[in-house]
Amino acid sequence: MYRRKRYRSPEGGEGVQTWKRRRRSPCNEREWRRPPHIPRRSRRRSPSRSHRRDFYWGRHKRRQSNGVNFSEELSSSHSKSYSHSTHSPAHQSKGKEKTKTDKGHCHNSNHSKSASYSSSVSMRIWKSQPSTKDSQNVEDDKDGHLVCRTGERILERYEIVGDLGEGTFGKVVECLDLDKGKTRIALKIIRNVRKYRDAAQLEINVLRKIKEQDRENKNMCVLMRDWFEYHGHICIVFELLGKSTFEFQKENNFLPYPLAHIRHMAFQLCHALKFLHDNQLTHTDLKPENILFVNSDFNTSYNEKKKCEEKCVKNSSIRVVDFGSATFDHEYHTTIVATRHYRPPEVILELGWSQPCDVWSLGCILFEYYSGFTLFQTHDNREHLVMMERILGSLPRRMVYKTRKQKYFQNGSLIWDENTSDGRYVSKNCHPLKSYKTKDSPEHVHLFDLLSKMLEFSPALRITLKEALEHPFFNNLNPDERALGNRTTRDPISR
Asked: Is the pTM of the predicted complex or chain greater than 0.90?
């Protein structure tokens, strides 16, 4: 970087001069220094705007010389079609004439794959392009939600008739499918945010897999009918279902479900999750909000014990929904899954998880159906673990010593102060599992035996869904309830 030069001063002394070396530009003045045995190199050009422009036109000329033409035309449905013609330069004019006559079809047999891809893309673009009248009214709010108004139409096919709910991912609206005789459907509209669009594509892949493996819809998983993109929003078309089991229980003042309904819903959930696990899928976000009744019509009666009106659903057939977090066995497993109240201990301790985590969540859900309140009402990891030990017994020492979360433990025991407000709350509200049993009849005993096996700390020792379906708790199911997996209608059943 710096050079030094010694010189003799006029006073007779010797000095040193230091100066910074200049970088010499590649100019023509240096060409005479080039030795004859070294070939001459092209001059280095700076990446200026003119250089990029020359490079573009050079590439454009090369593309024309290769005989590849890209034509873009607007069809009557405002979709874009891209056609390829791979001919030699000598026959380029003939290729153009052929492209004009065929309008967007590939003319080379070796490019059949690309032709089918372009046709599917153009069809998808056609579905995502609305009419001119629609495009004038489409707008998003500040959070990226599509603004939906009753009476508006999407793609001139789905007429909005009501709102079914809104969440972090987007919203769900009830629509009439005008192409299917005004059939009522549920349209899930994802927010126009990239991370939610990416998650929606993953959910679509899972729903496709489910539809392939369950063509007759016998395994109690929600049925995806179609999907499309609309002004940056991924839209998924589902069958129209009733209210969620959480919403119904909330509107019923959180009164417990009848034991017969709990048995029937548990039987269906075990079948649905077994179907997912057999296809190497884990739901990972099972909760009452993601379990919907097929038909949530109900009868009303007066509860003498509670001194209030009690609703009783006519048809306890259910469907599992929301596969946005579902994970295949071969895919990357995130560290934290499941909603807090239904999260298993192996996830809290970051010991890795697999399909048994769904079984734990199912046990928490069935307890909530039975009691009307959440088994683990907390938002803190340490408190969550303390509640587990209060209700289910001590954590296995193998899990305690294996976890990286040693900040929660000291000498193999949880660090916890019972004299704090949190400590007093846990001591007052958390009791052994069997103490929540309201009756000592065999049906109640069988239910709590099943719950204790689902809420086993060790995933390896936790009951499997195949074993759960053979549990004595399900012996009292009538034939009509056992066959309800074949039902796809929303009609009530006779009991």
From this structure: no
